[in-house]
Amino acid sequence: MSSLPTIYIGYDPKEKVYCDVLEYSINKYSSSPVNIVRLKQDSVRRTGLYWRTKIIKDGQQVDSFDGKPFSTEFSFTRFLVPFLNVHQGHALFMDCDMYMRDDINKLFNLFAYRDFSVACVHHKYQPNDKYKMDNKLQQTYFRKNWSSFMLFNCGNPELNELTVSDVNTSSGGWLHGMHWAESIGQITEEWNWLDGHSSEDIDPKCVHFTTGGPLFRNWEGKRDIDNQYAKEWNELYREMSEQYD
To answer: pLDDT, tens digit, for every residue of 195-222?
Structure first.
């Protein structure tokens, strides 16, 4: 296991560009090296840590265990982070449809000595739209979006209540609702700022495009500020592309 702060990015092949830009933005603003791991479902399947199955119903992925639709390949694998980090140190999980605007090391330093099993932004968020930008059903559940940005204190014994079997067989509502956690630390909303929802008065350290964002054709933000951050994302994409040309 790396001694550097470790960040696991949820990876889905159809959103690879989002993953690329997020990783680029993390490194751009980081004051010191960090370890970034792309959390790929096929990789954790090969390790034997993940065996959930799915069916396709009306073009939507549906989980075989709880019968509920889900959107990405990392919908459930995110909860394997404590195991992947061998129950040591702190590790951050991030959805890929985000980008950083500040130094991620600040977050790790802020929570280094706090007693919690997992920390996140305690959003009060229930989307009104029935469908997401990719025409997939929008799932509503307790603590919506809390699990999109989670800082795990991997050595906390409370996480013993979250087993590999739980990750593979428990309902999405139980996992995403963090019913497995007793002590949930609170991160300020600037670290997981949601487009179309979070206050325009907040200066985000991390922007999260929950409504689709610039990767989706014909996407337009609900507010001018959402489109402003989409322009920033596009600028990062341009910088990244020029750097690797």
So the answer is: 999 999 999 999 999 998 998 888 999 9
Q: Looking at the domain assignment, is residue 62 inside a domain?
A: no
Task: Single out the residue of 56, 200, 229, 59 nearest to residue 132, CA to CA.
Answer: 59
Number of separate domains in the chain: 1
* Burial call 104-117: b when 16+ CB within 10 Å, e when fewer: bbebbeebeeeebb
Cα–Cα separations (whole angstroms), residue 211 to 103, 136, 157, 172, 214: 24, 12, 36, 20, 10
Written as one letter, the residue type at 121 is V
**Which parts of the chain fold into alpha helices (H)?**
16-29, 41-47, 81-84, 105-111, 164-169, 172-176, 224-244
For residue 171, give the CATH number of its domain: 3.90.550.10
CB neighbours of residue 141 within 10 Å? 17
Which is nearest to 76 in space by CA: 216, 6, 173, 191?
173
* Domain of 237, in residue numbers: 6-50+76-244
Is the model's pTM score more than 0.85?
yes
